[in-house]
UniProtKB/TrEMBL annotation:
GO terms for molecular function: phosphoprotein phosphatase activity; phosphorelay sensor kinase activity. This is histidine kinase. It comes from Cesiribacter andamanensis AMV16. It catalyses: ATP + protein L-histidine = ADP + protein N-phospho-L-histidine. The chain holds residues 86 to 362 of 362 of the full protein. One of its GO terms (biological process) is cellular response to phosphate starvation. The keyword Membrane applies. One of its GO terms (cellular component) is plasma membrane.
Length: 277
């Protein structure tokens, strides 16, 4: 590149400018496509809980409210549908912000081992009620420092663990478990969430990260998922320049895993946190 030649320099500048415009146009097109598809998907998904709640409420108004037991049961069901709607709207907002890159990641240096323990503690009740054991290997570390957005990574681990519990093996013998493991891979830490649940058929494996994609449509409704959990996970990890990997075998179980950066250099913890802000 000869920047002393003015003609060449001007040429280069025009070239850069045109390249920039092209990229901007592509970005705008991408956003427009995204908005159109998103709206279509969303209106479809919103209808399910709205119709359900309407159904219960109108049945109550039609006279079902006279019977106290029926009244309580129907009100509870209407409330559950509206709770589901609330979760769906929250997930949708998060996903749309992630997909259009409106969410900033707030990096800091934090103890990943502690975060995983905290998520497992939080989900213990839910797992127990389904007869699933949440476990960590005996050599699971006390400290494991990584450089990432702690709140978002907490959401990734929560979504993966919640799925592992939800799609656990429902055989009457029980014996279901979910295990978190960590592995060092050079300057990265790999986190693995393993389950011995029902597994995912190979032909669905690369589609489960699409929004609203479910392996079993009807069962997903029963288990109350929004179909957005894995799409959110994928986008959060992409923002971390990482990716989500999955291995699964039907009837045996699944392993979801991803990698995070270990501490970059030997700066003190407070300096690292300052850099994040
Ligand atoms: P959902 O709200 O339906 O759980 P997700 O995006 O979290 O939405 O997951 C998409 C689909 O992937 C699920 O409906 C389920 O079919 C499948 N899936 C996700 N995690 C697991 C798992 N650990 N075991 C088996 N199937 C899973």
């Amino acid at each position: 590149k000869d920047t002393r030649n003015p003609l060449r320099r001007i040429n280069q500048e025009i070239f850069n400018f045109a390249g920039l415009k092209q990229r901007e146009i592509e970005e705008l097109k991408r956003m427009a496509d995204f908005r159109r598809e998103f709206l279509a998907d969303v209106s479809h998904e919103l209808k399910t809980p709205i119709f359900a709640a309407q159904g219960y409420i109108y049945t109550l108004l039609d006279g079902a409210a006279d019977d106290e037991a029926v009244r309580t049961r129907f009100l509870q069901k209407a409330a559950n549908s509206l709770d589901g709607l609330d979760v769906l709207v929250q997930d949708l907002l998060m996903l749309s912000q992630l997909e259009t890159k409106q969410i900033r990641m707030y990096y800091s240096y934090f103890n990943l081992a502690e975060l995983i323990r905290a998520v497992f503690d939080q989900m213990e009740g839910k797992a127990e009620s389904q007869g699933i054991a949440l476990r960590l290997p005996a050599d699971f570390p006390e400290q494991l420092w990584v450089w990432a957005d702690k709140q978002r990574i907490q959401q990734v681990i929560t979504n993966l663990t919640s799925n592992a519990i939800k799609y656990s093996n429902d055989s009457p013998e029980g014996g279901g478990w979910v295990e978190a493991q960590v592995r060092e891979e050079g300057d990265r830490i790999r986190v693995l969430i393993k389950d011995n649940g029902r597994g995912i058929p190979a032909e669905h494996l690369n589609r489960i990260f699409e929004r609203f994609y479910r392996v079993e449509k009807s069962r997903a409704k029963v288990s109350g998922g929004t179909g957005l959990g894995l799409a959110i996970v994928k986008h959060i990890l992409e923002a971390h320049k990482s990716q989500i990997d999955v291995q699964s075998e039907v009837g045996k179980g699944s392993v979801f895993s991803f990698r995070l950066k270990k501490r970059k250099d030997k700066r003190s913890r407070s300096q690292q946190t300052e850099l994040a802000e």
